[in-house]
């Protein structure tokens, strides 16, 4: 198999995992949006400053969809067992030893800093998850100082004029469920040289300023709800907006930021509302969702505009047998992945990572075993079926989603209260939605 040169690295498994991951993402995600993918240069030293909603899904996505090979900082306790250490190192992971993980030796992190500086000298991309912890809250946490210290140390030692910090935002609809949607955004570079004079006068002040600028840059490409009290209101507003602007199923991977910046403008508007306006909007939405519940509907069903026409029925009829084959053959793998995640995961942030990892490893073994069985049978039909089973497993998920869309559309169109509910919904959206000038401005700035 021929691999893209852009995935070359010293990690022995890195190019293979990066290529195999694409099939996994199509199974795990309904939609993947990537904005400004080429914003990370391939021939310059880069510190990629990323937020961290999930445990391992974020680095996997960044490694697969960005051009240069990426070296990811990850928590040191994962490296305690020799087998896991070799695995992590083979996919360009390196440890950071945190006090809260039970580490107290400062010299260990000095080695990590030296490692990062060495990679930057080699014109590599090093990812640091600057919030210091993973979380699914739709807000950016304060930037930890480690990335600034590494940046200034590397610049001081090697005078890397092109050394830059580039923000990377990973934004999920949920973050802890299969068939999720994710928006990956790459922001504008922050050059370390612009802070050097200030650093020489006031190192502490320069570190604080760089961290503040990184945090602000992340807020421009990440969901950010200012107050925790507004989290539920924000989720409802995002749901209403997504169902108003539903996207086509294909392509699964889209290279634009239109949807994200539209949704971000909505959250920015929420952050600026007075407490009185928030309470009024929250009351409207609460009454609307209560009415939906009493009517036996949800907002997605109400807004369903999928045509229940002959072509849709023809697709469902023609795809029924492939769906059944894919569904039955993929069920053991799906059940195994869910059970492993349900049993092992204590925090929401790990759920998708564990389920994806279990499904990925078990899936390779499972589908390879099925293919070998078909190969032993020797019949060309069964051999072809063995090759198609992974695709049919994905198709079964897609078919099920299309079937549910048709059922929802029929239910919504026949409901006697649909018109009244849509009228209430339109009033809420008129109150909540504003023109997207802030989003358009940020979109244009990054495109430049």
Quick overview:
The chain has 448 residues and is of the alpha/beta class.
Distance between the termini: 37 Å
Unreliable spans: 1-9, 434-441
Mean pLDDT: 89
CATH-assigned fold name of the largest domain? Glycerol-3-phosphate (1)-acyltransferase
Describe the protein's architecture and organization.
There is one protein chain. 59% of the residues lie in helices and 10% in strands. The chain is flat. Strand 3, helix 3 and strand 4 form a beta-alpha-beta unit. Strands 1, 2, 3, 4, 5, 6, 7, 8 and 9 form a nine-stranded mixed β-sheet that branches. It starts with 13 loop residues before the first helix and ends with a helix. It is of the alpha/beta class. It folds into three domains: 220 residues, Glycerol-3-phosphate (1)-acyltransferase (3-Layer(aba) Sandwich), CATH 3.40.1130; 84 residues, no CATH class; 105 residues, no CATH class.
